[in-house]
Write a structure and sequence with these properties.
346 residues, Rossmann fold, 2 domains, five-stranded parallel beta sheet, 13 strands, globular, disordered N terminus
């Protein structure tokens, strides 16, 4: 299967079913690629594969590469999105084991699989594929800031790994269920794996971020929506650049702020407190008006996975009253999500 994006770049083949590799991560947020595939493309996943010391599970059956291959798996997906996008030396033997079991390796990390000698040599010897998803197309222009036809929604957040992708997918599906013409526009490794195409925004030189976002969401019919997966956070100490370029280039008419209640610090950066939701709204409006003066906030998406159903419903209702806009959890859906969709489409 060869997939083409709207901007003419040819995506790499992704052989599936997948065995999801979680390495030895101990924080759920760093395994967001595995969880994203499990939640949104579960029919393509046969199991999970974990190194010694790993503490996170997707809930899929745990299995070695040989067992996964026997069950029809075609590739090992590196299901981790860690700081810096690196593949530690402690993972290499496990990935080599996957190649030796007859599986290809698919990765969305910044480091290229072929730059790791053991993987390159094993893949060459066995005739296996090393597939790097985080590869942007060539000749991306700089942004021009010109207004494009069609409508756009961008998910933004108070931090990384708290639901921007899930929210974008859930909203695009909810729009489609109402008969709205809509496309989900993936901007990160997991979203690209789910959608089959997109733009790896955090692998693009910063001067071209806005241009890449413009390519990702081109001119469209007046009633067509592009729902664009956000990246990073506008106040993130390390990743704010990609968030700002995506905001300016997307020119969103609507944005939805994603947040995880109870998270106190920026993930992986304990010295930095999480910003207030209201601060993100204010800053996104101020900066977003540079390329779309009509930008507005459609509401909020909360990751309430650590709460019970009743507690989550009560909390989101109170926060919606406090913030003055609908609050929903895309994984819980229901009337709260429908109110959020109403607010975005009004």
């Amino acid at each position: 299967m060869t997939i083409k994006t709207d901007f003419g770049a040819e995506a790499l083949t992704l052989p599936h079913p997948y065995l999801l590799f979680l390495g030895d991560v101990k924080h759920k947020g760093y395994a967001k690629t595995a969880f994203g595939l499990c939640d949104w493309a579960g029919e393509k996943c046969v199991g999970e594969y974990i190194c010694e010391g790993g503490e996170i599970t997707t809930g899929l059956p745990r299995m070695a590469p040989t067992e996964a291959a026997a069950k029809g798996a075609k590739s090992v997906i590196v299901g981790v999105a860690n700081s810096g996008g690196i593949i530690p030396s402690t993972w290499v033997a496990s990935l080599v084991e996957g190649l030796e079991a007859g599986l290809d390796i698919v990765s969305g990390m910044h480091v290229r699989l072929g730059d790791i000698p053991e993987l390159a040599e094993t893949a060459r010897r066995l005739g296996r594929q090393l597939v790097d998803v985080r590869t942007p197309p060539a000749n991306i222009p700089i942004g021009n800031g010109q207004k494009r036809s069609g409508k756009r929604l961008l998910t933004v957040g108070t931090d990384c790994a708290l639901g921007k992708k899930y929210t974008a997918i859930a909203l695009s599906r909810a729009f489609a269920a109402r008969g709205v013409q809509v496309d989900f526009r993936a901007t990160g490794q997991t979203g690209i794996m789910i959608a089959g195409g997109g733009m790896p925004m955090d692998a693009i030189v910063s001067d071209f971020e806005a241009g890449a976002a413009e390519l990702l969401s081109p001119d469209a019919a007046p009633d067509h929506w592009d729902v664009i997966e956000g990246q990073g956070a506008i106040l993130h100490p390390a990743y704010a650049a990609v968030s700002l370029g995506l905001l300016h280039g997307s020119q969103p008419d609507i944005f939805v702020v994603c947040h995880e209640p109870g998270r106190e610090n920026v993930i992986g950066m304990p010295g930095f407190k999480l910003p207030e939701i209201e601060e993100i709204v204010e800053l996104t409006l101020k900066l977003g008006r540079r390329t779309n003066p009509a930008i507005r906030c459609g509401g909020f998406s909360f990751n309430t996975s650590e709460m019970g159903e009743v507690e989550a419903a009560e909390f989101m209702t109170k926060e919606g009253e406090r913030l003055g806009l609908p609050v929903a959890d895309p994984m819980r859906g229901g009337e709260a999500l429908e109110r959020l969709v109403d607010s975005c489409l009004q």
